Amino acid sequence: MNYCVVQTFIKEVPLFKRGKVRDIYDLGDRLLIIATDRISAFDIVLPTPIPEKGKVLTLMTLFWLNFLKDIVKSHLITANVEEYPEILQPYKDILFQRSMIVRKAKVIPVECIVRGYITGSAMEEYKKSGKVCDIPLPSGLKEADKLPNPIFTPSTKAEKGLHDINISFEQMCNIVGKEIAETLKELSLKLYQKAAIYAETKGIIIADTKFEFGFLDNEIILIDEVLTPDSSRFWAKEEYTPGRPQKSFDKQFIRDWLKSIPWKEVDPPHIPQDIVEKTRMKYLEALYKITGKLL
User: Fold this and answer.
1) Which of 41, 57, 120, 293 would you call most buried, defined as having the most Cβ atoms within 10 angstroms of its Cβ?
2) Looking at the 3D structure of the chain, how many domains does it have?
3) Which of 104, 134, 157 delimits the end of a domain?
């Protein structure tokens, strides 16, 4: 059966949190994370789901957690629904391929963004100041240019309905402490560099991405989604040309569509069916290129 999950209701388990895209349930010292088919853009949840999107996010996250496990541990326990607690078995058809059971970690309240190319809000900031998050960059950079080296540009971690704010590394140190900030920066750059090298062999440029971390038993671990089309910009390597927008396999397509129409945050528009299908196909193509999996 093909489920298009907008919101899940598991009455036997308390809801821990409902985020922009994920529904999270409390299993005591563990959490059940369900990736729905909701899509957000500009930190606004749109009213139209993208079918199978949640499965793409989950399967890609599982791939990357395994691929990157030599760099940092993660919160993952299992994504095999047959191993889930008995209380969840009636829901296994819905949970299949779009859920994970994870350890409950103390979330570190910053988003760890790594940029290998300049685009989006970073390009806007660069045009104004020649810097991104207080990091000076070479003059004359064009849209989508590759940076001399990847840069770490943290942001605040906003709740649903609020906007993330780019911050400097010094500001991050004030929030989490210098030692933790240095560790997160080092981990984020290592994760990005290993993933970016691999992705290029599959025809995808990872222009930028964000990581989230937490503490478990005083150890920093990787949490939430990892290197998905929601949390990253994926560009087609064979069509990459600096100085213009790139062909992408991520939700930039939705952002561009929103920019092309009049709308207000208080009343986000429904997504036309053709845009829904094109977005869905971009997500599925990203999944196949990176993991070799088909849904």
Assistant:
1) 57
2) 2
3) 104
